[in-house]
Amino acid sequence: MPIDVKELSFTYAQGSPYEVRALSHLDLSIADGEFVGIIGKTGCGKSTLIQLIAGLMKPTSGTVSIDGEVFYPGKTDRSSLSKRIGVLFQYPEIQLFENTVEKDVSFALKHASLSSSEVKEKVHWALNAVGLDFDKFKDLSPLGLSGGEKRRVAVAGVLVTKPEILILDEPIAGLDPKSQDGFLKLLDNLNADGTTIIMISHNLDALAEHTKRTVVLEDGILIRDASTREVLTDTIFLKEHGLGMTQVGRISDGLKNCNLPLPELPLTMRELCSALLKVSA
Fold first, then answer.
1. Whole-prediction pTM value?
2. In a structure prediction context, what are the per-residue pLDDT tens digits for the chain, which is 281 residues long?
């Protein structure tokens, strides 16, 4: 299910004194199976973009097509899109509301015309996919789980329909390091199985470790679209646009300032360690 964005623009409160242009003439294509990161300062249009891709809003102009079809609110066939795209907004655990994990995860299948055994089978698969044992967690209240477990239940509630595209808005915000690592490994596994993943994050280190491509927005305009390595090792570009740096980038910059430059700019901590070993050998 390739995604094709053409001349996409969106304006909030159009025609009113409070009009705000969120996106302007944006072009973007995402192929099946990609893992794409989206970065940019707060208010640059990231969340607006993913809501338009998910078909949750109608663009002011331009189009978003999924597998060659254009979807937006008001189109009669948009219901098919919800089965093919899963969206996880920031802090999804606050949206958990059922009294058991099984009921919460199965909610997306409420109108799927499935038997109770078929629903149970899908919930079992979704919980297993996020690393939660069905028998252990199915009868527990989702509200009594740890932060990382809640996040996994929320993801299971999205995965239960087996979407081909997974869109995430700051999915690791608020998680402790162990939960972050586990969640990102889950995304890697889903991507390895063919799920297309689009992830907004301010955590450049996470993007460096897990994405292959990074898109940069600024004031509603796409200003960079390249490999994650090219974008996140370009420290001059990152500084100029106020995007911060990866931890590896800061260490590499510090070494350079101490007249100990590395022969190649590393992207990940593993690459940094390898580079340091070569320099010290």
1. 0.88
2. 799 999 999 999 988 999 999 999 999 999 999 999 999 999 999 999 999 998 889 899 999 988 888 877 666 455 667 678 889 888 777 888 899 999 999 998 887 788 999 999 999 999 988 889 999 999 999 989 988 888 889 989 988 988 899 999 998 888 788 888 888 988 999 899 999 999 999 999 999 999 999 999 999 999 999 999 999 999 899 999 999 999 998 988 888 888 777 777 899 998 888 888 877 65
215 within some domain = no
**Which stretches does DSSP call E strand in the chain?**
3-12, 20-30, 35-39, 61-66, 69-70, 85-88, 165-169, 196-200, 213-218, 221-227
| Domain of 257, in residue numbers | 246-281
The count of structural domains within the chain is 1
Tokens of 187: 């995304």
